[in-house]
Please model this.
Amino acid sequence: MIALSLAEIAAVVGGQTHDIPDPSTQVTGPVVRDSREVVPGSLFAAFVGERVDGHDFASRVVEAGAVAVLASRPVGAPAIVVEDVQAALGALARHVVKRLGATLVALTGSAGKTSTKDLIAQVLQRKAPTVFTPQSLNNEIGLPLTALTATEETQFLVLEMGARGVGHIRYLTDLTPPKIGVVLNVGTAHIGEFGGREQIAQAKGEIVEGLPEDGAAILNADDPLVRAMAPRTKAKVVLFGESAEADVRAENVRLTDSGQPSFRLLTPSGACDVTMRLYGEHHVSNALAAAAVAHELGMSAEEIATALSEAGTLSRWRMEVTERPDGVTIVNDAYNANPESMRAALRALAAMGKGRRTWAVLGKMAELGDEALAEHDAVGRLAVRLNVSKLVAVGGIEASWLQLGAYNEGSWGEESVHVSDAQAAIDLLRSELRPGDVVLVKASRSVGLESVAQALVESGAEGEVAAR
Model:
């Protein structure tokens, strides 16, 4: 964070100083909410959680080097006491962002947010110092914490914004007002909470409503609900996609033999070929969104294409590919899942597994409400249509819907199986995998299927899978 005195911070957040010997003492380190992340010069934000109260760690974090605690009550250690720690954190982020003057890029969408954010960051880093959301910390706490990691050298701030209801993104854009707003897509993620795709579109579109006239709204030309957001902004509208009407578009899209997308990138400033290191055709749309942002910020088509071709995976468990010594390929995409990302992952598996035996180890997609049965059934059916060799459905009733969809689509019989939990899936795969197989592991975060992928990677390292 930029250096600020405790007195300045107290004034910005409307707090009172307690047990602070010298209010001119500066916070020179990051603002953190996890006591394990404290380093000398930090400010520790004490939140009260379901199981842990951050205030209980006050003495410990000060001993570890924190300058003070941002707290909702006196803690017997140097503290700035406020009525609401979350609101204070947001106020501090708003102050720092305004003072820095960095160009803020915000993005949202039902699927692909984190992967696209990582692409945008890797492209913009070629031009100037860039700070971006780590992993998918995209809520009312994670977003200000990310913004507060910016320093005087930061020129671009790339922030992922999530929403679970109308008004959430508007709140986030009020904290950190973007100059460039990106909407990737409107799908069915969290549809059970929103109530319908129209409500999701209403919420996602909030990201473009507050953009300045000299800003840019980067919208997906291939998604009608996103494209319809254009009248909601006073900023310049830039369309990306494979549509002929897109300002930044892709032509000649194909997948390499290893499942990596290759295409011709066309921008208003020129055209260049791109072959990505990432896996799956869905990354083409993500790359086009990143290219549109970079073009608006002055990068040439050649610079953008080079950056996209060299970009890798920054966030864990998102199409994370491991090649085992025995020839088994593990695709760990277990961080989260919704119908759109599940379909994209299955298509990537089919492309990667041409001529090889493929496994789809799938679990529950959460927060689908009344659409849950139909969406799980549809994913199971898609696995059959894509000629995935074996489906392993993991978990409770949602997993049974996955298996039933597969069975009804293709009468797989023994080719689809429903197992109770992750350990059962691990046991099955350890006994049946053969060299050359490709395994996709994917489910909503709450299922925890990353343990399956990790166990399979470790099995390969230990040489547990015998040739069959």
